[in-house]
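Give me the fold.
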Amino acid sequence: MKIDTPVIKNNEYEVNIMDLTYQGLGVAKIDDFPIFIEDTLPGEVAKVKITKVNKNFSFGKLITLIKKSSDRVEDVNRDYIKTGIAPLQHLKYDAQLNFKQHQVQELFEKAKMDVDVLPTIGMDTPNKYRNKAQVPVRKIHGKLETGFYRRHSHDLIPIEDFYIQDPKIDEAILVVRDVLRRFHVAPYNEGGHNGVIRNIIVRRGYYTGEMMIGLVTRTKKLPMSDLVVKTITEQLPEVKSIIQNINLSDGNAIFGKKNVKLFGKNYIEDKLLGLTFAISLNSFYQVNPTQTEKLYSLAIEKANLTSDQTVIDAYCGIGTISLAMAQHVKKVYGVEIVANAIEDAKINAQKNHINNARFVVGKAEEQMARWQENGLKPDVIMVDPPRKGLDESFINSAAKMNPQKIVYISCNPATLVRDAQILSDLGYEINQPVQPVDQFPQTVHVETVTVFDKIN
């Protein structure tokens, strides 16, 4: 069926870029019909070729820039945009921070919520910050390669410098890649579901320098594993742990269910807010250490914690924010669905001699309902959910517990605003400005800290 639109696929048009989407795509309009174009910025005039037309919008490819924005960064690496590693690298950093503040503000305005949003807290050096890498391994031109997928595909683009990662991690990926090549370990072939190595994971402690290598395999055995391990550890003395993760599935999930320790410890250690944390291969740990300290310090400060209070930390991970709060309150309860993370949280409590934190494995929404039925009365609930935000049953259980404050660390402004509307209906309002924090420079993602106060 032919769609009647003001633009036609494969035709070229001259357009004015008027805005950026939350995904960092430039927005132009012809007869009020939106065109989304990668690598364009507001204020620019561009010649674009239409690549896809839907009923209500279309996508275009930049052909030439007729007029450039003063916020444009020249001389960028196209591979970082193609793969989505750094989709905002062509936008000056102060403009990235403004974009993220505007993104949050606009969503509250669309929801007709009168909320102030403060300027985004940025980084002094907004690159080389990630303390974790997960890179796919594939065969290209007959050779094992590491890199990143082209956006919306599984075509691997070989990359050696990932720009936003700790350079020591980039170096480790190349060492592991070359060791696997040397011992002829076969890269995974997605089409035939054969080969061995699917992904290389590298984690590195920002303060400790300790490094973990994860080798995700399609097979239960890693060929030449003794020699692979020996050579990696000789070349990378920072490595304190090498873990094989066995993923037998033919799906897209990175991790399988079973880990096998090939070398050293089951975890590495790092420090955060003066505390020591054990971090295992699968557990969640914020990837930007310097910004995480700002983010968590801000959340704890805004919670106004006192020594007689009880706090719940939902989505507690390995206990980072729980244990930081435990120093200020009477009791902390943490819940997390990943069993390994809860094991780490308990180890971390012992490492830091903290005795007033209790951790349980479970879905946050189900555990909240159990705690509420058991009569637990928290003064503050701290939430740091995944991108999908809070389950409505979680919000209902939280509101029934009647805490004075709910402090919400969000990594997705859209679900934050959705949840804020529900909390508002249940008697919790935002009385102070929302604070965005740039946890992921050069990308479209933004973290926020929002405080909900109980209306008395």
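The mean pLDDT is 95.
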